[in-house]
Amino acid sequence: MAGGGAARAQTAYIGYAYPAGGQRGTTFQVKLGGQRLDDVCGVIVSGTGVTGRIAEYQRRLGSQETQLLQEQVRELKRQFAPPAPPKPTTPVAPKPAETSPNPPKPATPPVPEPPTPAPSAAVSEKDQAALDMIARIEKRIAGVVNRPACAALADIVFIEITAAPDAQPGPREIRLVTPKGVSNPLVFEIGQVPELCRKAMVTAEFQVLGKEALAQRKRPDAEAEDRVTIPCTLNGQIASGEVNRYRFEARKGQRLVVSVSARELIPYIADAVPGWFQPVVALSDSKGNEVAYSGGYRFKPDPTLFFEVPGDGEYVCQIQDSIFRGREDFVYRLTVSEMPFVTGIFPLGCRAGDSPKITMNGWNIDGAEITPPPTDAAPAIRQIVARKDGFTSNRVPFAIDTLPETFDKEPNDNQASAQEVNLPVIINGRLDRKDDWDVFRFAGHAGDTVVAEVQARRLNSPLDSVVKITDASGDVLALNDDTEDVGSGLNTHHADSYIMLKLPADGPYFVHLGDTGRNGGEEYSYRLRISAPRPDFELRVVPSSIAIRGKSSGSLKVHVIRKDGFVGPVVLALTNPPPGFFAAPATLAPTQNMTQLNVKTDLPDTKEPVRLCVQGTAKIDGQDVVREAVPAEDRMQAFLWRHLVPANDLQALVFDPSYVPPPKRTPPVIR
Predict the structure, then answer these.
(1) Predicted local confidence at residue 113, as pLDDT
(2) CATH of the domain at 167
(3) pLDDT averaged over every residue in the chain
(4) Do residues 333 and 474 both lie within one domain?
(5) Is beta strand 255-261 parallel, antiparallel or unpaired with respect to 331-337?
(6) DSSP class of residue 297?
(7) Taking the CB of residue 171, how many other CB atoms lie within 10 A of it?
(8) Residue 349 and residue 406: Cα distance in Å, rounded?
């Protein structure tokens, strides 16, 4: 693996983007903090309708460099800065003698005449350039932090983003390109309503235990609150100990949705507990009385609250970290609007080729329309939205499968009233009320293996399922509450249930499905698969970008997620690689869950990043099954847990290690 390790060590990294999005139809500046961003030269935004360009790069400065800049400012000021006008003097009244019985009143000091302005003279081009340079250097020095709270955020890049008026709203991915690699992706949202962006934070200082207050940001009290007009999206960063407030006017009867994106933007922060920014939001009326509060939405850390305005007047929305932590990567987007928001759909999926009627619950959805994926969509979990008056709702997952489907039919609360089903089947159902159980009966044969799998939490249902299989006498043969699915994105509570059971005898069997908290209601929907095992696999390729030295090689890690007892080997290869890229096939043995794929190139360099695709092939029931590897980033949560966070693309860049970028500034020629 020649050069692979060195190439990985030089890969660019971005830890936050602020603001982490903007309104379509606008151009705006974004600040990104990271490391190894030397000579950043490009911006990649996924999807169409959004472009970016580099505006400025500020690497982390050392103390000696800062001192040299300060000396340069002093020298420039000595040569070019105009002298400060003299300060007016105020005459001092004479002090009365102590022995005088009637001391004279102090004289009223005369009002000084305003200084006569000097005759205006046009500033020369040379002088103006020097003054501009002084301002730039002073601004640069003001942002220097000798000991940042997180060194991985200390390199700063400013980019300019342009979002077309017809750009599709919702999450994208943003990356930076350097001559030696492509950065990790960060979520970047395209919004639909006007946006406000608070002044960007300077790099946070390291906090010393017992002296944390010394490192806290010193901001004027006036910057704690902004007056805004709804609907709007509010972009901010939370510093240690801070609270941000927004004051707005609202009318009686408005049905406001206040939603926050924070963990969705930066899913995992390695050196924070619980591993992400945990925002909480509260609404108060003009008298300061709290009228609504949210510390999360169902099982998601990002809060969402729904508020029907009781009367005309001013309201204040407040956001902070739940335990008053803060840093420049504690970034949020807070939207206050009457846009449609879907809280639940039914069914949660359909059979491939079908086009079912989907019902939905939520706020501001009267007149909204939601449509399933097209009938030619391949089996997978897709994202769908509701549309109303030109606005798009939040995205909700929708599953597509190939098995026959049916719906649960009440009453089926116990074994005596169980709903009979024929296997294989996927049942779309819901737990309609608290402490509800849905029970399904099927005919089994001795030696058959049966799988009962729930999809609910992975489809945004609040259901925390528990499943058990019983025989005709009611004896429990298998029971499961939670099963981890490492391919389920950002879930940290794997609440869906899974059982694979070999049946002991011929006869009827019963699958019981309930909620561990005995909850229920219209939104407690599920998809329950009862079938023979369907051996299959998924792949994740890490990282989602690779930097390779010219005419050398680099390595990717490929993880396999085995399903329904699949234990066969998987052969990995590049699919339709760009010219100059190739890889010898690698095999994931039956005992392996991860291996490396070496990617080679005979190119000296690539001018721009290219996309790669990794596929795995396995024999299942005598058939070749091919699965494309999903690019992902290996992220750590709270010093301990690791997660494979999916990305859109696998980007590759070949670089010449001897390449030296041309200097951005050249010294003047002295004659």
Answers:
(1) 43
(2) 2.60.40.10
(3) 90
(4) no
(5) antiparallel
(6) B
(7) 18
(8) 11
